[in-house]
Write a structure and sequence with these properties.
Order of helices and strands: EHHEHEHEEEHH
Helix content: 40-55%
Number of strands: 6
Shape: globular
Strand content: 5-15%
Oligomer: single chain
Structural class: alpha/beta
């Protein structure tokens, strides 16, 4: 994973409530934007129900991913006719350049993991310390 260029090009996607996410699922403009941006990213990430948009856009095809556990049924139904290997027990899942997290605090843990991948673990630990955040660095927890 450290082979990414020194100038990362991430596409972060934040989740929202299920009702809000459901309203965006058929917005072809949003889905096309995600597909287009994904072609040029070094990392494509999501937090919470943001994974539903990545799934619906088709960019998670044949990948492992996770999402908010309370929204699992809804999110896992957004597959655009592809196979996605949903991980039910994970704070975040990294599969190539795609990194998805479950809830909001797991998204913070995932973001610190990404910092560690791009800039080193020491930098991620410094950020967590300054933010007074206890980093759960176990993706499977």
């Amino acid at each position: 994973l450290n082979s990414h260029s020194s100038r990362p090009r991430p596409l972060p996607l934040a989740g929202n409530s299920q009702s809000s996410a459901k309203q965006r699922m058929n917005n072809t403009g949003i889905l096309e934007f995600i597909r287009k941006q994904d072609r040029g990213t070094t990392w494509t990430t999501s937090v919470c129900t943001g994974a539903a948009l990545l799934a619906k856009a088709g960019v998670l095809a044949d990948r492992q991913a996770t999402s908010n556990k309370a929204a699992h049924q809804f999110v896992s139904s957004q597959h655009a006719g592809t196979t996605i290997h949903w991980q039910g027990k994970a704070r975040w899942v990294a599969d190539g350049k795609y990194v998805t997290s479950s809830g909001v605090s797991a998204g913070t843990d995932m973001a610190l993991w990404l910092v560690a991948q791009m800039y080193g673990r020491t930098r991620a630990e410094e950020i967590a310390k300054v933010a007074e955040y206890t980093w759960n660095d176990d993706a499977s927890n």
